[in-house]
Amino acid sequence: MPGLSVNHRHTTKDSYQAYVWFREAAEQGNAYAQFNLGLMYKKGEGIPCDYARAFVWLRLSALQGLAFAQNHLGAMYFNGQGVAKNDVEAVYWFRHAALQGDASAQQNLGQMYKRGRGVAQSDEQALAWFYRASEQGVASAQALLGEAYASGRGAKKNNALALAWFRKAALQGDASAQFNLGLAYKRGQGVSQSDVQAMAWFRQAAAQGDPVAQRQVGVAYAEGLGVARDQLRAYAWLSRAAEQDDMDAQFNLGIMLANGQGVAKDEARALSWYYRAAEQGHALAQFNLGGMYANGRGVARDLARALAWYRMAAEQGTPNAQFNLGVIYANGQGVERDETLAASWYLKAAEQGDASAQNNLGVLYANGQGVARDDIQAVRWYGKAAEQGHALAQYNLGGMYNGGRGVTRDRVQSYMWISLAAAAGDETAASNKHVIARKMTPAEIGLATDLTRQWQQAHGA
Known about the structure:
25 helices
């Protein structure tokens, strides 16, 4: 929670003399001396830091109604410094200071309402207190007020008001406001989309050490958004963010190092960045880490670890990982073969639109592997993958039409789908296409050819 700071600098001798003076005045009941003495104990200025004594003196000052002391006392209750943590007491003292107009306390009280700590959660009350602090020019409160209007928390969503408050805070140097202003320009929310303006604000926040802003600057350099593409600068900014444990930056560094994008290819270092992001729960990093272990890239091949990382990503809903798990169980790669589990994982990926998983699920239904044989379901899943241009699924669907399995036998449809598969480079489809054509009339071949052309035009193939 934000508190007050004392900008005076003292030598050790001066600090001790100040301590002596404050101590004498504090013991005589002077509220300001009690406050300053409490701060000296709290910050360890000229005397050893002692939260317990700081609490005693700040409380005495607060009880005399000094707003600064009340706000600091609330912060000590909030952080458990010199006293047991107590959100209710923190709110009590923040409120007393806030009602006297202490801007820092007003922001702190708003935060308590926002989080529902020590008081019933209320976005409306949070916004009201942020507004009062913002009117006094507190940049951090202005940034919070902008976030409230941007998200519609406590008031109707209003991009114009959000931007106005973000800009006020950003011009005072608030990093979070600068970052949010950059996001607004990047997304074109309430302003004309501008990668140049986005980069300008991201850069200011990044220079203050904001890791997410540093990542955005890195991405901008990598993709040439609002700035000339520069992979080395991209790497440098992503590294800064990654060192602060920004998992998306860590993932991006892994990609750059694994593929040699703008930097020397280094799979071992890529693996280390993927690992750090994966440990934080980054699903795609977990998937890529699984791939590194599965293929022995940057590390010795280890199917057990590959399986473990794929599973983590799969359980977060990553379709590629779900498909890979299906393949692993279907083929018994490093695990006991289990077609039922394979079907289960293929289904999860297939329902998310993964064409390869849809095709493989179709195969399992067509053969009764891991699931009861069901030609209708096989056709259904082949069809979904085929419509996405999956060549093997198109060939398989053509075979179902040719044999009348799960669908009415139709050589025209069979020829069309097998032709599409052949055009996509499936060699088996190319040879079987002529076998089917021998049993068709010229009119049927002409119709199938027209349907093939129409499908290709509709799908941009």
